[in-house]
């Protein structure tokens, strides 16, 4: 039975690529040094998958920055401001597009669908002169082949590439990006021909935009593109990979009718409805790459459940045409659980990072082929049972409190104008008051103090003294600048989610559970494994301390429940909204304690609220309803005189701002 991995993390188990990149950017190491680290990472990844028994091993999923930027380089779609004069694109041009340079800004960066990863948005227009300018896909295929590993080269599909692009500056916003399809397909044909000549027998085209709400002309573009490529694809096996959601019936029909295609990959974790489409209509003699192992979370797969799903699909597509796969690239999960030496053993038994998911994929594939590893499955079943029955997962009081929320929509009892009047009498602010978002820059010295306190190298008294001194500097600066509503600068905080998660029950933290956000930037999401509650106040001491330093209003600064949820690895044994309500109740306790301590302005940041918006418009209303409800829960109990702020960022809110402002103010 065949197994497949959509993609793999590129940073390395201990962020080796991050450090190599930053050393190169700082001119502390050479391009050759960077390339050596990258080659070592690629080699270890391919060998790891081969040793695990994976049949379809991806190549060209490694990137020095971003896979979409790699596609832009392949197509030679370099914006004119970077002064590129043709030829093979090197590091200077590549990293200038990604990061900017002394004279020109970087290209725009935005979220990769509904993940926490960011991609570099291509800037296109009618005058772009496309050319085959990066041979990376072919070079990496040959590199793996020389190591004895025959891989499946992965390319961003031509239609998704265009749909993810934007009109360049000076190009009409109404310009049809899909009109460029005839200009980029010749480049794809060159790449395909070179891969075929190099010995590739399979090529994977990632076309994730197929899961979006697409119009008829957009779906037609897929049909036109692959019809044009059909003769070039002849003699190759072609996999079209989709992920992150279900396909609509129209998108599914378009996909399975594409010319020159051998196999279709689906996310069957977040796209369970696609299973019905497969059962009702799957092309004869085509391969199904069934994504049953979650590529976006860190929980051990329920192997028995996956096997059951696959057995049902086997009856539809045939044993010889079924390939076990991940739901998406493992880029979105942590790298290797073996590096977690401080995690509790019980919690660790419930987890699987990318390296472990590779093993899971092959174990399920072998079981489907009649070669079941009984001991491995038994261990997995025991871990699943442990997680379900563990008393550390369930808190009856939290469950009751969350269940009680269903009886109310938690709207404030007084209207907005009455609250504004009460707040003005209390705060006496000018017509247009000034404030800041909250966090001030953290110096190396400040980070050293926090690090040494955490390592027990300095006393608590010394730590508190140092933080108080930093807060006093921030307060004095704001008063000097005549800011109306002050902040304490958050010198005691490491990360806006981790800081709160460390003080809430139901959270666990890793040492090396890093996930790439963009470029060399990595984040280490907390793990929400159980019911969430707040054992004691989290921010009251520092906010009260700051308020004692000034007569002006001092804002209490909190991270909102939706952002904590969306920037964590979330438990998958209950709906996300239930976990969010639990976090909201914990933040509610903190809000009310801040108010009792004399903090009259409280900001509840929801930087990631937009990130969690489902990809399909039909699911927007439900998400926004519970997300905004969660925010309202946090502050429903405050007095009319207490002013509640929020801060949202990192996203385009144009399509949902009316609904947000209407619901949140009520």
Automatic annotation (TrEMBL):
Pathway: Amino-acid biosynthesis; L-methionine biosynthesis via de novo pathway; L-methionine from L-homocysteine (MetE route): step 1/1. GO terms for biological process: methionine biosynthetic process; methylation. Its cofactor is Zn(2+). It is an enzyme of class 2 (transferase). InterPro entries: Cbl-indep_Met_Synth_N (IPR013215), Cobalamin-indep_Met_synthase (IPR006276), Met_Synth_C/arc (IPR002629), UROD/MetE-like_sf (IPR038071). NCBIfam families: met_syn_B12ind, PRK05222.1. This is 5-methyltetrahydropteroyltriglutamate--homocysteine S-methyltransferase.
């Amino acid at each position: 039975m065949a197994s497949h991995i959509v993609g793999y993390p590129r940073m390395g188990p201990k962020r080796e690529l991050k450090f190599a990149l930053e050393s190169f950017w700082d001119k502390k190491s050479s391009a050759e040094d960077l390339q050596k680290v990258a080659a070592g990472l690629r080699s270890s990844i391919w060998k790891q998958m081969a040793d695990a028994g994976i049949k379809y091993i991806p190549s060209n999923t490694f990137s020095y920055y971003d896979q979409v930027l790699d596609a832009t380089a392949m197509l030679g779609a370099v914006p004119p401001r970077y002064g590129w004069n043709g030829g093979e694109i090197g590091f200077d041009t590549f990293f200038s597009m990604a990061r900017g340079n002394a004279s020109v800004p970087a290209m725009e960066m935005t979220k990769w669908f509904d993940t926490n990863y960011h991609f570099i948005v291509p800037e296109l227009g009618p005058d772009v002169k496309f050319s085959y300018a990066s041979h990376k896909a072919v070079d990496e295929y040959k590199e793996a082949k020389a190591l004895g590993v025959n891989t499946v080269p992965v390319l961003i599909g031509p239609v998704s590439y265009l749909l993810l692009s934007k009109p360049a500056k000076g190009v009409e916003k109404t310009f049809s990006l899909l009109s460029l399809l005839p200009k980029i397909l010749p480049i794809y044909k060159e790449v395909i021909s070179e891969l075929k000549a190099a010995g590739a027998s399979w090529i994977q085209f990632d076309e994730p935009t197929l899961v979006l709400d697409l119009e008829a002309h957009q779906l037609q573009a897929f049909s036109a593109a692959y019809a044009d490529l059909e003769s070039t694809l002849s003699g190759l096996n072609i996999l079209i990979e989709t992920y992150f959601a279900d396909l609509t019936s129209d998108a599914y029909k378009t996909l399975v009718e594409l010319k020159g295609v051998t196999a279709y990959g689906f996310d069957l974790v977040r796209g369970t409805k696609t299973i019905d489409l497969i059962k009702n209509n799957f092309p004869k003699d085509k391969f199904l790459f069934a994504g049953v192992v979650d590529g976006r979370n860190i929980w051990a797969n329920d192997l028995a459940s996956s096997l059951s799903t696959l057995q049902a699909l086997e009856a539809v597509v045939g044993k010889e045409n079924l390939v076990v796969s991940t739901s998406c690239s493992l880029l979105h999960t942590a790298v290797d659980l073996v590096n977690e030496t401080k995690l509790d053993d019980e919690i660790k038994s419930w987890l699987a990072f990318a390296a472990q998911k590779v093993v899971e994929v092959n174990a399920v594939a072998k079981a489907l082929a009649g070669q079941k590893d009984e001991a491995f499955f038994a261990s997995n079943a025991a871990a699943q049972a442990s997680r379900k029955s563990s008393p550390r997962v369930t808190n009856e009081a939290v469950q009751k409190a969350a269940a009680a929320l269903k009886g109310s929509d938690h709207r404030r009892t007084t209207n907005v104008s009455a609250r504004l009047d009460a707040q003005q009498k209390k705060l006496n602010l000018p017509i247009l008051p000034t404030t800041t978002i909250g966090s001030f820059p953290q110096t190396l010295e400040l980070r050293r103090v926090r690090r040494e306190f955490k390592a027990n190298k300095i006393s608590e008294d010394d730590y508190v003294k140092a933080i108080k001194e930093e807060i006093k500097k921030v307060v004095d600066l704001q008063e000097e600048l005549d800011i109306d509503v002050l902040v304490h600068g958050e010198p005691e905080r490491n990360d806006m989610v981790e800081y709160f998660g460390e003080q809430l029950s139901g959270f666990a933290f890793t040492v090396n559970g890093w996930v790439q956000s963009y470029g060399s930037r990595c984040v280490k999401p907390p793990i929400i494994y159980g019911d969430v509650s707040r054992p004691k106040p989290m921010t009251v001491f520092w906010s009260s301390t700051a308020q004692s330093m000034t007569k002006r209003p001092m804002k209490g600064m909190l991270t909102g429940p939706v952002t904590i949820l969306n920037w964590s690895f979330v438990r998958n044994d209950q709906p996300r909204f239930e976990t969010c309500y639990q976090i909201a109740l914990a933040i509610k306790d903190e809000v009310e304690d801040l108010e009792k301590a004399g903090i009259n302005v409280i900001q509840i940041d929801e930087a990631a609220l937009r990130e969690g918006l489902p990809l399909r418009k039909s699911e927007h209303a439900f998400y926004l309803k519970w997300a905004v409800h969660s925010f309202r829960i946090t502050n429903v109990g405050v007095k009319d005189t207490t002013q509640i702020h929020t801060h949202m960022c990192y996203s385009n809110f144009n399509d949902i701002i009316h609904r947000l402002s209407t619901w949140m103010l009520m």
